[in-house]
Amino acid sequence: MAHSLDDLPPRAALVEIARDFHARGWMAGTAGNLSVREDDGHFWITASGKPKGRLEETDFLLVRVKDGEVVERVGPDNKPSAETSIHRAIYSLFPTARACLHGHIVEAAVAADRAKQGAKGLRLPATEMIKGFDIWQQNPKVDLPLFENHLDVTKIARDIETRFKKLKPAVTAMMIRAHGPTVWGASLQEAYNRFEILEYLLRYQAQTRAR
After folding, report:
1. Whole-model pTM above 0.90?
2. In b/e form, how buried is each residue of 148-174, taking b as 16+ CB within 10 angstroms?
3. In which domain, by residue range, is 193 found?
């Protein structure tokens, strides 16, 4: 067994993550999408409509970061996920990002629902776990970027590009209201770890505010 997700071939690692996230209820049905960037300016991403609990290494497409062009379909019927534009935006904005994970978490949606209408950020609880995002201040005030949901996902991607070009986020993560979180990292293992950490922080927040 590999000690790190980075020790596995990229698609095999994403399959393992998909099945893990599905088992935790973070990728119900076909929801969510995962990607990993190659060294040649492309990224592998899960194809649309694939059950994440039964994902296979054939359920992927290779997409060019520069223009979003699909350059390889492992399965001939594979279609790009609607969120491909979001992954491409992240890779374009952050050259050090090597992996991008998007899921649907109940507690995350609840925490975002409690944010004020039009809020651009969601204050994360200053618990010990926030150190997983390399936040080392005492009682830090850190906001998770919050974006409005749109049926046209490319509009969300444009909103992300517009905001993050002006101001880089304090954490390598963001949340789409009534949708779900997206987390990226300098490696696949880092992105996975940070997704778990963000889930913990938002679950903590949802449960404490429910009291």
Report:
1. yes
2. eeeeebbebbebbbebbeeeebbbbbb
3. 5-209
